[in-house]
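Changelog excerpt

This revision adds worked examples to the README so contributors can see how folded entries look when concatenated. The first example is reproduced verbatim below.
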Amino acid sequence: MSPDNPLNLLCATLANVEVEGTLKGRERSRFYVQLDIDDRKAVISAKIKCSVSGLRWEWTSGNEIMNIDLDQCLLLDSISWFAPSSKIKIAIYQYHMLICNKCVGRLGRTQVVDMIANGASNIHLFLHASFDLTSESGLAVPLRMKIALCPAPKSDDDIENLLQEVDNSISKLKNRESVLGTASSIGQALQLIKAIMNNFSQIHPVLNASWVVISGVYKILQDTDVQDEVIRELANTLREMLGTAAAVPDLPQIPNTDSVIEEISRQSLQVASLIHEYANLSFLKRTAKIQLSGDLKSRILQCQTKCTSLQMKLAIRIDINAHARATQIGMVLLMLHVIKDDVLATKIHKWLSASDSSKNLNEADEKHQDGTCLWFFKGKQFLGWQETPGLLWIKGKLIKTLSDKKPCLVVAYFFFDGRDSQSALQLHENLIRSLIIQFSHHYGGLPESLESLYKHCGEHHQPSVNQLQKVLQDILNQFCHAYIIIDALDECIDHAKTLDWIFKLIVNFNQLVTNIHILVTSRPEQDIEKKFNQLSLTVIDIAEATRQDIIDVLKVEMNLKFREYSQKTQDEIKTQLNERADGSFRWMALQLQELAKCYSEDAAIKQLARLPDGLNGIYDQILEAIDKRYHDETLIFLQWLAFSMRPMKIVELADTVTVDFDGQNGPVCNIKKRYNNPYDLLKRCSSLVIESNGVIKLSHFSVKEYLLSTVNKDFKINKEISHSKIAEISIVYLLQFNSVEFLTENMLESFPLAGYAAQHWIDHLRLGTMNSMLYQSVLSLFTLESAFTNWIKILNIDVLQKNTQDFALDREKFQSPLYYASLSGMEQVLKHLIEQKKDINIQREPYDNALQAACHEGHEVIVKLLLEDGADINAQERQYGNVLQATCYQGHEALVKLLLEDGADVNAQGGEYGNALQAASYQGYEVIVKLLLEHGADVNAQGGQYGNALQAACYQGYEVIVKLLLEHGADVNAQEEQYGNALQAACYQGHKAVIKLLLKYRADVNAVGGEYGSALHTASARGHKEVIMLLQEKLAQYTSSIIGVVSDSGI
């Protein structure tokens, strides 16, 4: 029977206690367990001897834990009732006639709810928890305790009676406002848990514990004056969370992921425990805990955050399930498996190298003024787009975090950024990579299809854009609604690819897209407008709409920055800026910055009188204000910011001034020129730049456009000249390490620009122009032993070692200067090194020699130079087997032709793809495949990852290549180990057109072999419905023909 206290409704059975480790004690010592509940003795076990395996106490189902009097020292056969926030303490005591009750190890106070929630995972709800023990003084001891604790559920009658009581009580509570918000929410939560228990009694048994805990909380809340808002909110969160779970009793679990329903049931224990702890306090203690210390309130808020996260997670799983049902194939739901191997997932994340534009998103959010853009977010067009899949194009700049509005939306963002030369935020491919990572996060993990792609490409090779887009499409297909936000599309340097991709998403086989919502912001460039005009879309031109927002922002800014000015001056500033801005936020923001610099109200009035027209006028004014002594430094800063390969840190950019171009023997590094405070460069560049978390950028894309077009000779920049200047500064910066024999990581911390310089000087040199002074600097880097060695140690640019840093690297273990000159395409440097009689055929990993490195990178001039000087055209290498195969894989047509004409063996075997033809077929290079076939490539040569060229092309789905190979005599039924044959390889990926082509060329649909046994089994395992139907139709035709033959023969 339950005690009088209505809170003590959580009963539990102690199954066993085990102790592992070294127990030292006197001979004939015995040991016993004492369990305390809320500092009261509850259980004292029998005294037993220590065995070889340790100590173990077991209790039968009848020996349940009971609260006992302090004087009792025996185990009684009754049930013990715990409060939801009760704390258990267990100690192991040694007993000997000479030593009475010595504590040898203990487990400190642990909340019962935590123990159940963290350990109850199987159908019997037993907690098998393991804990390290300490001494009474808190020091670690070499003992470990395993505890099996089982909460005993309430009977069905108890539950039904309590539910009736809940129903009656909730109606009475309506007249008691202070209790209504919490007690009624808990009551509804109890009803919801009962609904879930009816459907999940075996699958999610932890809900039994949730039930008894929350029911106890409900009883005390009926008589408690609960006034704190956080408690009422927590109760409402519990009700909503369990209500959503109750609404989806048959929600299937995504393979290899945690059960959301079970997570919610565990969290309900935590919620109830916190509410109980609060409600059981006196008014004074409650005030002290909540209002003064804030400890309990902080824990409640953390609990709310977890609940909100679970609500979002459950909503997304429901969304995924609903969409999977809509696309159901037969009786199997097509739900992606996710990668559960954390190590593998980390490797794939690194391999994918997805660009992170969250800084741009945060930057945009920080600039956003509360109360602005309401016309947009409350407008019919935006609200309609949120509900209906399709494309919304905003002509202008307007991004605000949608998840702030609706936390459960599945949203992914990408911000293109053209303020510098960083390809990371300017390429379509990087948009796709980023979306894959973001939507995978929403789904619960990386899909296994990405693992397959990773394994097929290999860690050191990247997938094609088409392959990545297919993976992304697979992920998007799992959601009922997925939202893609693309900002500044016009700043994408290959936005034609993005336009095509968007077009295909929106127009899918002439049917309107059913689940994708795309929002794009961009300036109305001609090609963008032309492409979008072909679609059914919603267009918003924000030029006029932003005028009211400008007025709203100016009101706020007057109060923040100009409150000391007279009302007349404030009104004048607002009027002038609003009228002159002509809808341009950027112009208004810059003028506010300049006005804020004025030292007096009079100076601000004079500044207003000479407001420039347009952005270019403002930029002219800013540059004119820069001290002439710093023009050269400022120009260099602006060149770096406009054309750097990635965003620059302030400490990196500031160190560019250490390169002195006034040296007698050319530019040298002069550390004495370093700024005492790197942030002083912000004073030089004024409002043209912005800084966030130590990273500096041009403040707007229009700044770069202005610098490229300005007539101001002191600050006009040119793309090629800027890249050359950046390359020269980088090289000279690296040359200072020629005087350092043993460079260490600690030493490098004093040279912040070294990492960028080592990684990107070649990139800048390729985009710039080589002059005599720059050539001498480059030659010095390759010929000065210590400078060259330290450059490679700082950042190795070798293909398979790219971007690695190793200060312990032995000089004898990395490639020669001639190799790196060939790899980086340095023609003049290579000629110099060849003249110095350097060995061009020296073999070292990963690409073994200079010719193979040059071929891999596609440097035709370098390849010719090396071949003319005797490079071995058929030298073997580890990854691709030979030069020709490596070149075919990379798709360098001119080089393939050159190598074939110079005697490369077209059928040389070895490497990842077996031969050159298979490598070209796998990559889908039609022209190269034709070249190889014309030069005698064996179309049926075996070997490599895919067995033969035909299977490689079939796996990838290149219909044109497949047809070409078949026309040249490829064996359509050739066997190999992994996929069995070409038909099975095509079925694996679901390439319907290729399958039809193979069947036309008499592919054997009954052929056995490979991983799945047959083509039909492969298609079934991969869930390709249309392929299954196609194969079944072919099998039916085959069967009919056999029957016909049998009938004709009279058998």
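The second example, added in the same revision:
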Amino acid sequence: MNFRLASYFFSISLFLSSLTLDAQVAEQCRFDQLHKKRMTEDPGFSDGVKAARKQIDKILFEQQQQLIQPTSGAQYQIIDDVLQIPVVVHVVHTGTAVGVGANIAQSQIDSAIIALNDRFSKTPGTRGDASGVDTKIQFVLASRDPDCNSSTGVVRVNGSSVTNYASQGISAGVTSGADEVDVKNLSRWPNSDYMNIWVVSEIENNNAGFGIQGYAYFPGASAVVDGLVVQHSSFGISGTVNSWNNLNRTVTHEVGHYLGLYHTFEGDSSGVSCPPVTNGCGTGLGDCVTDTEPHIRSSSNCPTGSTNTCTGGTVGLVIRNYMDYSSQTCADMYTTGQKSVMRSALFGPRRSLLSSQSYLAPDTLTLANASCTPQTTNLSNLFAIGVTNVTLDSLNVTSPGSVSDSGYVDRTCSQVEYLEASTTYNLSITTGPSNDEDVRVYIDYNGDGDFLDTLELVYTNDSDTHHTGTITTPSNVVFNEKLRMRVLSEWHGLTANLNIGGSCYNPTYGQAEDFAIVFEDTTTTPSAGCASTTNGTWNVSASTLWSCGVIPDSTVDVVISSGDSVAITSNATVNKLRIENNGILFLAAGVELVIKGDSLQLEGGSQGGKLNCSSGSFITMRGQAGNTQYIVNEANDPLRFANLILNNADDVELASGGDFELTEGLFFKNDPLVNNADEFTFISDSVSTGHIAEFVSTAGISGNDVTIQRYVSSRLAEWNSVGVSGVVTDLEDLDGEIATSGFTGTDTPSGSASIQYWDNSSNQYVTPTNTSDSFLIGRGYQVWLDNSSGQWTGANWDVSGEVNTDETNLDVNSGGAGWNFLANPFPAFLDFQTINDDYSEIVGDEFWYYDADSVTFNARGPNTFIPPGQGFWIKWSSGSGTMDLDLTNHIRSDLGTSELFKREIKEQLKLIMMNESRSAADAIYIRKQVSTTAQMDDEDIPIIQLPTTKAVSLSMNTSGYDLMVNHVDPLKSHEIILQASVTQPGKYHLKLRGTRHFTRNYCLSLIVDGQTIDLVKNSATSVHFEDDKLSKNMILRLDRKEQCEKSDEMMEFASVYSDSKTIIIKPNNPEALINEIEVFNSIGAKVFGMTGVRGLGNYRLNLNDAPSGIYLVRIAGLESEYVEKVVLH
């Protein structure tokens, strides 16, 4: 056998382009070059930006499924869902008077902020009032500086002392100008509390004219550079701005980068070629936004009628996007997708901007000077060490760590948390992430400036990157003053043999951060009361709205009077609250209302009292020890909570005689909830699902039954993987909500079984015997949903019973194929990451579910969740045992989706086969893993069955197994036999997803009906099934690039394919003569040979006696040869 054929058998066995403005003047953004340069040269910068992008992507993923809700007690500046960002403008001038040159006037700064807000909020009558969206993000000049002094939010500094600044301005990292960090060192406020904007004289010696107009950095950037740089002639709409750039376009564009947006033309090779249609997010081949068209950067005046050469559509929306390089006169919009990215950045890596109080005037509370200020002694390290997040109750501050931040950060002015004495709070500190660290937390409870007194060391944890626990505040604290909280960290490798030396310890590599704590005095005797006297906003016009003449606080019993309508738009605390008949209290999104007294009461009557809770709002019950708190609803309508936080030291009771509903989260901080309500329902609809969001071991729900709803969106009638949503009941409860059949007690006992569960010991489905059978907690059920003649129109069902809050033991074993069909046992979102960490026996670190929309099985990896009522499959690797799940350790709190799962998230090659109507489909998955084969490996996963025969079935046949998931070694070529079968003849579509994950290593092709299809060029194709042949084999080939590129050369010579057991050879080059043909079976034995062949015609080799299988055909000319695989069947 020649060397080529032997080798073949061996392989089987193993912003820089200019933008033309109205006057044809170039505007440029330096984001692209600076971003790539720092990502390449600065590991700390790269790590921070990557971590931030990962956080943004995670939040985006949850938003896409309507998951994201503010966490408990969030102190966001949210007014009608508007997020406010504190801004500081550093005017870096060259010694000129205010209003001259770079030392721009206050009026010009104000015009920039106003114009920026107009564009971000679509203010009617302004240039922002176009076809884009209201991002609901606003920018406010800071009212206090980092030292708690009053401020205008503007700092003026002379930059002439920095080398080259007076003559060339600031460098943008490429050519001339003063060093960027040296300029920013003149004035910089903490990037966790302020959006820093540096207004400069010029950029890279452009004389404040053409060229680079500005640049900004992504979330996660190093603190020394993070923020925006804009030259003064492009900042605002008045004053020193150039006439061709006087619409504040540059500022709007750069803020987009600051909040995580790429250019919309990302991946256009500097204007040379179209970005790929498939958005390669994070690869430089797409802007990570789904509703912006790929295009080449614009470079002309608003060519609205022109064609987008990348899509064939018009360029109308492309050139109007702020993140393009089009003229300022046509840029007027952000898209819905861009809004989602920017808000995700604010809910994620830039979250501390939302809890910053820098937009407020300084408070009058005193803070004792610290007795010492720790300083890190080695900030030159690149080991990603330091404090990156501190979360305590509603305080949530994210920062870059010691390298990018500084060795000591004083946040006592901008980050203030209000706590209570004798109360337990959850604490979370994140460090690293690359190295384990030791952490100490101190609180100066007596306000003497040090942390040396008893109980002031409140938390200690060693050798970790994520430090969680609780702190219980003492009773003898100083009330109504700022008290210092210090968080200290140090690299564990340094402290392994010694302790952090107290609160004054100077870290070598770690960090110290100070925050302010204020304790509210809850022991004050309540005042006589305060009633509303008209309509209004709670904390506005106190003298006219309230009978007491002041804004009510935690000492006051409040009454919303009959006929009055009052809105709460920022956090409020009261003693008792009573809403009279026909009185209305509105709670805005993101706002928390705390009840300290013994009751929250809605009076009855013709209208009844009303408490309208917006999505994302919170009612917190936080009374004194020894006192039960009561929530009383005497009105006819249910009292509907968005989020309810139970933080009373004793029980909270839903009083009898009323109905209550929960649409989002129920947070248990202390003792149980006593449910004496007539009805208490966890609502589930197209927007959200009520659920338990936090739990402690002392909590629970006692009393009457609770009703749990489960919403499923519209889809074709199909099987759905479901479970009971954490209540004790039977199948009759479900039978009353959806159409059932197939067993005793159902609507149609003689019909096909519409509810079945899986017995993995026998590898088959089991039909219940009677609707009186228990709807078992933790067992997965396949349920056929059909409520409208072959459709399921979006609807919910509900089950009622005692809520399961106990630890639940789910039996699992590796019998049969190892599949276990389970279900979420709680009315909460299971955190699969914690489950996967606890059980190494889960194969592939993933779970599977049946997606009724794509009618295929899909998987999710570790960092995901499992909603209430979701059935899921895991493959168990060895033996039998239990998965022990509990609400304290295995749930997530930041979720509220109404959807059962609808998409996969794995990086994989997915081949889908579906019928013409797309009502039936199946899929197989290929994943890369070194040292695996195309045969059966431990990591591979067999198919999962459905209760009924699939109308479309696709699997990989190897080693006697029918596989759904096959892992292959990316260093080798592979050939995988696919088995396809259908129940009806006709045309079926084949579609390949995830090719970008494989084309770096492979050429991808599919051999079907004797034809070889290039799957890189044709990711969608079709196959036909005849009446007498409803099944067939296909071959999926993954050829290493170096091999398939040679094959491409050979394709010029001849084509080889098969028809049943006939091999057809068709020369493709009229000048190439064939003089040898050989056919070999899969073990290398020659079964056919011809030599001395001549001629230009086609050749048909009939091998009717050969067994079905894979064969190699070798053809040779005078100077070349070609080897091809065919299937005889």
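Reviewer comment on example two: The chain has a mean pLDDT of 84. The first strand starts at residue 19 and ends at 20.
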